[in-house]
């Protein structure tokens, strides 16, 4: 997919499909086929848009009502939001430590979640669309979270998640000196019957693969970068604990206590193909202050760089 020429006009996306549509006798059928093949437009969504008269052909222009007004779906509640990337299709924001991603309905006076903050951002900026996160982060993990700003973007990005073409790179500080021979952790993860919140490596669990790259080995800890091949709950935390190097601060999985007060895990980079153009989007998220401070403290002891 490579759509280079497009414009947004209010609620409409305007495209120029060329002779693949304009040169055909049945232009409507040709437009449908072009959308399905060139944009990988989901068939169900295409039917919905057609039923709502959301497709127009005018001269050499094809117009789609992709930006129709939709309810936020989440109560807007203000919190300071660090926007890392934004266009008409995608929003990437930094999730701070201690903030849940979305409301879970456990209590009425629930703390503000990232979804609440994004809803507030949309409201303040006149973005009349639903709040739709594409992937998740644990409450105490920091890093970038991708949001889809229309139903088409959500469908394309959800499919990219299923195909594992959205690349998430994490950086972590693990307890102890991790062996340079540790490159991949391939161990299935399931629920822990004895602890509601925990997960554990289990033969009957779901396939889980984490790729490990060692950056620094210090006296008491190791700075590692990690890429997920799968996205199981607590995957990095479970896997590093399983190989004997739990994350610093991760009490749930046996990590040593530290003033960081959370697991030392940060989403450092998010890469994905733009849902419309196919262009590669790479979003960096700088280390948060508490992670920087922990790394500096560990680095003050004599260690070895790899």
TrEMBL record:
Any one Pfam family match given in the protein's UniProt record, by short name: PseudoU_synth_2
Gene3D superfamilies, A to Z: Pseudouridine synthase
InterPro entries noted in UniProt: PsdUridine_synth_cat_dom_sf, PsdUridine_synth_RluC/D, PsdUridine_synth_RsuA/RluA, RluA_PseudoU_synthase
Reaction equation(s) it catalyzes: a uridine in RNA = a pseudouridine in RNA
Transport as UniProt keyword: no
E.C. number: 5.4.99.-
Residues of the Pseudouridine synthase RsuA/RluA-like domain: 91-241
Keywords associated with the record: Isomerase
Protein family according to the UniProt entry: Belongs to the pseudouridine synthase RluA family.
Function: Responsible for synthesis of pseudouridine from uracil.
Protein known as: Pseudouridine synthase
Gene giving rise to this polypeptide: rluD
């Amino acid at each position: 997919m490579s759509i280079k020429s497009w414009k947004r006009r209010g609620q409409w996306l305007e495209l120029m499909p060329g002779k693949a549509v304009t040169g055909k006798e049945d232009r409507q059928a040709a437009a449908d086929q072009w959308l399905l093949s060139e944009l990988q437009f989901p068939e169900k969504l295409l039917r919905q848009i057609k039923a709502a008269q959301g497709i127009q052909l005018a001269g050499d222009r094809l117009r789609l009502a992709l930006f129709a007004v939709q309810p936020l779906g989440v109560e807007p509640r203000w919190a300071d939001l660090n926007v890392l990337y934004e266009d008409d299709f995608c929003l990437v924001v930094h999730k701070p430590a201690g903030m849940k991603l979305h409301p879970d309905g456990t209590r009425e006076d629930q703390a503000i979640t990232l979804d609440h903050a994004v809803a507030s951002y949309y409201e303040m900026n006149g973005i009349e669309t639903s709040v739709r996160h594409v992937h998740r982060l644990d409450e105490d993990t920091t890093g970038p979270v991708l949001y889809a700003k229309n139903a088409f973007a959500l469908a394309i990005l959800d499919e990219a998640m299923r195909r594992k073409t959205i690349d998430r790179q994490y950086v972590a500080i693990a307890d102890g000196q991790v062996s340079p021979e540790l490159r991949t952790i391939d161990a299935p993860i399931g629920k822990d019957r004895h602890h509601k919140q925990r997960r554990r490596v289990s033969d009957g669990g779901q396939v889980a693969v984490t790729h490990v790259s060692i950056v620094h080995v210090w006296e008491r800890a190791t700075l590692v970068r990690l890429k997920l091949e799968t996205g199981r709950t607590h995957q990095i935390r479970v896997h590093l604990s399983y190989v004997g190097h739990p994350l610093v601060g991760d009490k749930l999985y046996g990590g040593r206590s530290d003033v960081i007060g959370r697991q030392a895990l940060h989403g450092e980079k998010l890469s994905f193909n733009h849902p419309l153009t196919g262009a590669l989007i790479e979003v960096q998220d700088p280390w948060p202050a508490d992670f920087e401070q922990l790394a500096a403290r560990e680095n003050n002891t004599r260690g070895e760089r790899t």
